[in-house]
Amino acid sequence: MLRPENEQDLSEIIRGADGALRIIGGGTRGVGRPVAGEVLETGAMSGISLYEPGALTLVARAGTPLAEVEEVLASEGQRLPFEPADMRALLGLSGTPSIGGMVAANASGPRRVQAGACRDSLIGVRFVDGSGTIVKNGGRVMKNVTGYDLVKLMAGSWGTLGVLSECSFKLLPVPEAQATLLSDAMPAAEAVALMSRALGTPYEVSGAARRADGRVGLRIEGFAQQVGYRRDKLREALGGAWEVLEGADSAGFWRDIRDLRAFAGQGGDVWRISVKPSDAPELVARAYCPVVMDWGGGLIWALCDEGRDLRADMGSFSGHATLIRASEATRARLPVFQPEPAAVAALAQGLRARFDPRGILNPGLMG
User: Fold this and answer.
1) Mean pLDDT, consecutive 10-residue segments, the chain of 367 residues?
2) Is there a single domain that holds both residue 116 and residue 247?
3) Domain span at 196
4) pTM for this one?
C-alpha cells in the first residue's frame, strides 16, 4: 500500500507510478466498479490547516477524519452545512470517513434541500493530477486547464481526475433547536405532494423525507422560539395529524435518513436514484421494492434483490440511477453509474484525458 505523508509525497508517488492506482480515502464508500491497481491511501495526509470561526471558514487535509472536523466545529457551535452521511453500516465497511472521500463522493445529506450539496459549500481544493502535478483552486502550471471550475470538477469525481490533498469549506452555525413533524404512513404520490407543499411554505423546511414505513418527516431548525412558531404554523398550513419529534428524537430521525439505516444489515442491493420529485411516484411503482425517499422526493433509495438490474427494469426516465451496494460480480457486470449520453461521455472522457493522461487514477471505476 502507498501512503503519502504529505502533498509532495503524493505528487512523487503519482509521478513515479508505472500502473493503475486504486485511490482510497477512509475506505468507507466502496462504490463503483472494482479497480485493479496498487492501493494509494490518503489517511496520513491529515490535520486541520486553518480554521477561522469568525469567517465561517475551514481548511483541512484530505485524510482528516470527518469526525475530527465535526468535533472541532461543534466546539465553536458550527457545522458543515450539507450533512454528510456515514455509510459504513449500510455498506458493511469499517474504515474512517475522511474529508477527501466526502468531497470525492460529493456526499450530501437531507439538508441539501435547503443548504445545497457538498460542492456548494466547497470553496477551494488542492489535488495532484495523474501526471503528478500539484493543482490548486484558481491556478495551475499547465495552461490548458484555464477556465475550469476545479472545485466543481473534483466534487463527485471519485478520484478519477486527481487525488485530493486539501479542501476548504464555508460553514454555518449549529441551530439552537430543531423539530420534526412526523405523519402517518402514506403512499409515495401522497408523500411527494405533501413534501412539495411543505417545501413551498415560508417556514424554511430543512428536511423532507419519507421513511421505508411510509411516514413523512419534515424538519425545522433555528432559534428555539422561532422553531416552535414555524412548526405550529407549518402543521396548521398542512392540516392532518402529526407527531412532533423534538431535540435528540428529531436528530435521530434525520441521522437514520442520512445514513440509510433502514437498509443497513439487510440483504439485497441498494440503488440511489436522483429524479425530479414529480417523477418519483411513478419510479417507485416501477421499482417495486422497499424505498426511502429524501430531498422532497428528489432522491430515492431502493433495496432490491441481489443482482437485479433495477435501472433496466424501471425503463427510461429523466435522472440518474447509481448502484451503491452490490457484490463485486454485480458491480463488474452492471454499469454502476448512470450511462451518459454520447456528448456528455465524450466531454467526461476529454476531462479525464486532460487531468489523467496515463489513465492511472481509479481506471474504470466510473466507466
Assistant:
1) 96 96 90 92 96 96 97 98 95 93 95 95 95 75 52 92 96 97 98 98 98 98 95 96 96 97 96 97 97 98 97 94 95 92 89 94 89
2) no
3) 175-259
4) 0.93
